[in-house]
């Protein structure tokens, strides 16, 4: 019988070594990445293999995450109201925090439960935010706030707009990716069947 040696690597990657001859890769439902490797294969070869498969891994991890979140139950009216109340307290404070860094003012702030937008900015400077931002990581909520505040300077998605976002929040891209990969599952919790 093959003896298996297991180690945890980088927190999300589990290496299972056995008397096999090839490397294989698996993404499990709990978002754990499993690499099956020959007993004597050096770790550097496993790392090289993971590097080569980075695109495949990202795609399959995103799909697995969407499947996990798609199983989340629909939000009740009471839950949506609670999220909106929380957002009405948190988001204006975040707007007030970031507006000086962007160098802008704002008008009215509205909180809604929307199925198509995370935020918006009107020509008059009124801001609207999705209450579901309360279910996102804090840095994602902050990214949406900064994004809408930057529209006070640039009412488009021009290069100048993105430079302004980056000036205020250099790590903005990871939050945008998070919304693209995870946001749909959150919004699906609002939709009626």
> What percent strand?
15-25%
Compute the average pLDDT.
Answer: 88
Largest sheet: 4 strands, mixed
Shape: elongated
Number of extended strands: 7
Number of helices: 6
Low-confidence stretches: 1-11
Q: Roughly what percent helix?
A: 40-55%
- N- to C-terminal distance: 50 Å
Listing every helix as H and every strand as E from the N terminus to the C terminus, the arrangement reads: EEEEHHHEEEHHH
Radius of gyration: 21 Å
Structural class: alpha/beta
Q: Widest sheet: strand order?
A: 1-2-4-3
Report on this model:
This protein is of the alpha/beta class. 48% of the residues lie in helices and 17% in strands. The protein is built from six helices and seven strands; from the N terminus they run E-E-E-E-H-H-H-E-E-E-H-H-H. Strand 3 (24-27) and strand 4 form a beta hairpin. Helix 4 packs across helix 5 (159-168).
Entry keywords:
three-stranded mixed β-sheet; alpha/beta; disordered N terminus; single chain; elongated; four-stranded mixed β-sheet; 193 residues
